[in-house]
Automatic annotation (TrEMBL):
Keywords: NADP, Oxidoreductase. This is Zinc-binding alcohol dehydrogenase. InterPro entries: ADH-like_N, ER, GroES-like_sf, NAD(P)-bd_dom_sf. Residues 10-313 form the Enoyl reductase (ER) domain.
């Protein structure tokens, strides 16, 4: 079976089309024919071997990818599901460090990780929803803000940050989001109530708008301690990449590291996102689509920066 993976860790050029073993279906599992797999920064870290010891090599290969869209091929025995064989679906994948990643022609996943694809969306568009959408949803849930409270969002033009802006507005929050001059119109279009310039000076700009500080912060741009002055005393901070704030000087804040793998089988949350995509509450943004043979180019462009929306690898023939 074809997949896009690497037999050594390194830059984008280590990615190529490889053969991998078929995965087996058992109770509780579904087999999916992958049509499109979205590319995320986590995928580039996986390809580069960021989470392995120096000098280690994949055994036998590493296949990245955390979210996909495709067609349901097979339902495991004794597996309750509202889906039928032949349905278009989206799914989130927790890669195993080996060949179990979304960049493969077929994959077997827990039923909780798979829902119907949003109606009217292409495979490429649908593939951009699961991972970033669930991460954004989980960030907001962990912050626990109430309608009428205020949230600041860094990295608002990115995939995670954009979903946070849109879902926060749907939750009744007031949103202060960052953007470069070039992205200001984009972030306003996502629904941000206030847009401030990204980078140095973010916290001061937020305080100019909200003198007492915002109730919560979703730090998609990984500003870390530099963004914390924007948050009110006793506020909450949702972080990605596992930062828990223990090395910060703000002991009055509640830090909430967001790990999407903890929501990977939250079927109800993923299906709610599907409904919100159909309703236009969230926007499925595709930067570009490349074939499996050009996956390295997708990684190269993502790492170069400036990509708005998700790069997508297509497995359609």
């Amino acid at each position: 079976m074809r997949a896009v993976g690497a037999t050594e860790y390194g830059g984008p050029d280590v990615l190529r089309v490889i053969d991998v073993d078929e995965e087996r279906v058992s109770p509780g599992l579904l087999r999916i024919r992958v049509r499109a797999a979205a590319v995320s920064p986590t995928d580039t870290l996986k390809r580069a071997g960021a989470d392995v010891d120096e000098g280690a090599r994949p055994d036998p290969a590493v296949v990245p990818g955390m979210d996909l869209a495709g067609v349901l091929l097979e339902i495991g025995p004794d597996t309750p599901t509202e889906l039928s064989v032949g349905d278009d679906v989206v799914a989130i994948v927790v890669p195993d460090g080996g060949t179990h990643g979304a960049y493969r022609e077929e994959i077997v996943l827990p039923r909780g990780s798979v829902v119907a694809a949003p109606q009217g969306a292409s495979y490429a568009e649908a593939s951009t929803l699961p991972m970033n959408g669930l991460t954004a949803r989980r960030a907001l849930d962990q912050l626990g803000l109430e309608p009428g409270q205020t949230i600041a969002v860094t990295g608002a033009a990115g995939a995670f940050g954009g979903y946070v802006v849109q879902l926060a507005k749907a939750d009744g929050l007031t949103v202060v989001a960052d953007a470069s001059e070039a992205d200001e119109e984009l972030v306003e279009g996502l629904g941000a109530d206030h847009v401030v310039r990204r980078g140095a000076g973010f916290a001061d700009a937020v305080r100019d708008l909200v003198p007492d500080g915002v109730d919560g912060l979703a730090d998609g741009a990984l500003l870390g301690a530099d963004a914390l002055p924007a948050v009110a005393e006793g506020g909450a901070v949702a972080t990605i990449r596992g930062w828990d704030g223990s090395d910060s000087e703000r002991d009055d804040l509640r830090f909430e590291p967001v790990l999407v793998r903890d929501a990977a089988e939250d079927h109800d949350a993923l299906d709610r996102l599907r409904v919100q995509a159909e309703m236009g509450v969230v926007t499925l943004r595709v930067a570009d689509v490349v074939g499996a043979d050009d996956a390295a180019e997708a990684h190269r462009r993502l790492e170069a920066g400036g990509v708005r929306g998700r790069m997508v690898i297509s497995f359609e023939r």
